Protein: Thymidylate kinase
Amino acid sequence: MIEGIDGAGKRTLTDRLRAGLAARGASVGSGAFPRYGQDVHADLVREGLHGRLGPLGDSVYGMAVLYALDRRDGAEGVRKALREHDVVLIDRYIASNAAYGAARLHEPIDGEFVTWLHDLEVDRFGLPRPDLQLLLSVPPATAAARAVRRAESEADRARDLFETDDGLQARCAARYAELAGVSWLSPWVAVDGASSVDVNGLVDVVLG
Structure:
């Protein structure tokens, strides 16, 4: 799983890792959440992120349930990919919900929200646990600048309410660091996304 705040470069890292793993002969599957255009819950998430879902979009728990339902409906696809490939790379997973929800609520990771979310996604929905999570660490200001450039270059990629909230992004980066620090759900590896990423070194880590 590849995690990080908006604009951290997760999609780019996923593509580079996929190429690096394939060059080593590994069979690689990949995916991303939310699954916009594939799942109704993901499409509702998009509506909420652009302020078109009324009070539900303002509800941290309500949005978290939509994210979780998208993953629940996509879980069999994840399991199938795990059966068929040596490595499966997923851009955003359960930890994203934990980090952003806790950040929105100004809660620590040992607070009520993350405990509730673990019960929902892991215990009740039974989502597959990650084997390894890569945290792409980037200063929030750097990530924000990247998100702006992406929005300018991709006509259908206007920045959403989360992406334009600098305070939220900073808190989310801190929550991610805390999750990684306690190995939440699995071991984590921190990757410095502000400099040139050693993809070959990461391939070694992923392949174990």
Observations:
- The domain at 2-30+84-201 is CATH 3.40.50.300 (Rossmann fold).
